[in-house]
Description:
two-stranded antiparallel ribbon; alpha/beta; 32% strand
Amino acid sequence: MEHLAEPFLVPATSEHRGVLVWRWGTPVSVLSSAPVGGGPGMAEWVLNIGVRSDYDRTDLSDHASEVAAEVDLRGTGVAMFTAVDLSRRQRCISGGVVVDATVGISHPTWAAKSFSTETPAVGGTINLVVQLPVGLDPGAAVNAVITATEAKAQALATRGVPGTGTATDAVTIVWPAEAAAERFAGPRSPWGTSIAEAVYEAVRAGAEPRA
């Protein structure tokens, strides 16, 4: 990617509590677990939409479209949601990989703890946007999601958080559509190492206890 996107923060309105917007001049390749625009595909923008902790809309695609129109975005994109204060975004860079994280841990949960009584809540949400300057083949893209998720869990363990994440976390991996594809993005591959280190530092910083 010739230029990595620097997100800008849209002030809160009656429809949201602020929005972080990543926008690229040309469409980029993405793989995302976001509730709007998730899966593999192409995107021109990514949104991290701030909502109230009691957010209960189920028409997420409609809401994302409303917000995109508000900030004059066209084309296709990805939208994530969070009740975290978006001004607390953490950015970390490692080996050319750029990670932006909004970290909410009010409702941590264990991935395999089936008897947990925790219920999903957008107040406790960790959203990650991971930008790479190189291409990824399909397997490497999935590997990048796994690596980012493992690094997130490692960062939470370092902070003593009782869980591997939250029930509403999302991750979006972004790379230049026309770049030569890398075959590997596991944690011991060169690019996977950079993903892991950047995600770890961003989540660790975002999970730092606050007075």
